[in-house]
Write a structure and sequence with these properties.
The protein is mainly α and about 130 residues long. The chain is built from eight helices and no strands.
Length: about 130
């Protein structure tokens, strides 16, 4: 269902990549984030607006933080490592973490970056499943 939520947010609600992943995770995993809190990732889309780190990846990291993090990242044992693991898995799956590179590899005129958004959801799902078991 995570990917279905993300696709709906991306296509129908005109969310950017980061928003679509975070909003989908919020819906799927009952993260309890408000609309105002979800706005915090809006600027991550399009590789922070300039083609650097992929917004879908950043949305997934934000969702992981909402699920796993305590009060602060530095106070949450293993959180930074898990973020790194998520990013490495994303890179292995898609070939890069840089938005401008990913657009060339995976985007098209019709679907824009949907393939990347859905791949971010795949990677995030495995981390969320592990969080559920903790």
């Amino acid at each position: 269902m995570l990917k279905e939520h993300a696709e709906r947010f991306y296509r129908e609600d005109h969310c950017n990549c980061a928003e679509a992943v975070l909003l989908a995770a919020n819906a799927e995993y009952n993260l309890g984030l408000t609309d105002d809190q979800c706005k915090l990732v809006g600027g991550f889309g399009g590789g922070v607006g300039c083609g650097i780190t992929c917004g879908a990846l950043l949305g997934a990291v934000a969702a992981l933080g909402a699920k796993k993090m305590g009060r602060r990242a530095q106070e949450t044992y293993g959180f930074n490592k898990e973020c790194g693991d998520l990013a490495r898995e994303f890179q292995e799956k898609l070939g890069d973490t840089n938005c401008s590179v990913l657009r060339k590899l995976h985007a098209d005129q019709t679907n824009r970056c949907l393939k990347t958004v859905l791949a971010a959801c795949d990677v995030l799902e495995s981390h969320m499943a592990a969080a559920e078991q903790e």
